[in-house]
Amino acid sequence: MTLIDKHNRIKKFIENQRGAMFLANTVNTGIYIFEPEIFNYIPEKKFYDFGRDVWPLLLKKKKSIFGYEMNSYWCDIGNLQGI
To answer: How far is CA 82 from the centre of its chain?
Structure first.
């Protein structure tokens, strides 16, 4: 779940947690566009989750993260398991 301001800057990011109360009616999904600098915040050869690790770290360091809220249909095509 994300909370954005009127300029689409993400002010708070809350990863889904079982039993958590909803604070917003938006979700984090879609296509990510990064500056190469993002790799300075992701350790090599270690699993690092965007929702639990990267986004909170960037917000803590006062880095700018932007989102785009849309009302269009989005379809998740699944994952690569079993391919």
So the answer is: 25
Buried b (16+ CB within 10 A) or exposed e, 9-22: ebeebbeeeeeeee
Q: With H, G, I as helix, E, B as strand and everything else as coil, classify residue 10.
A: strand
- Cα distances (angstroms) measured from residue 31 to each of 3, 76, 83: 18, 11, 21
β-pair partners for 10: 4
Question: Are 48 and 58 a contacting pair, CB within 8 Å?
Answer: no
Tokens representing 9?
């800057």
- pLDDT tens, position by position, 35-82: 999 999 999 999 998 888 998 899 999 998 888 877 887 777 766 675
pLDDT 10s digits, 16-35: 665 555 555 666 667 788 99
Q: In angstroms, rounded to a whole number, what is the distance separating the alpha carbons of residues 64 and 8?
A: 10
> Considering just the CA atoms, what is the radius of gyration of the chain in Å?
14
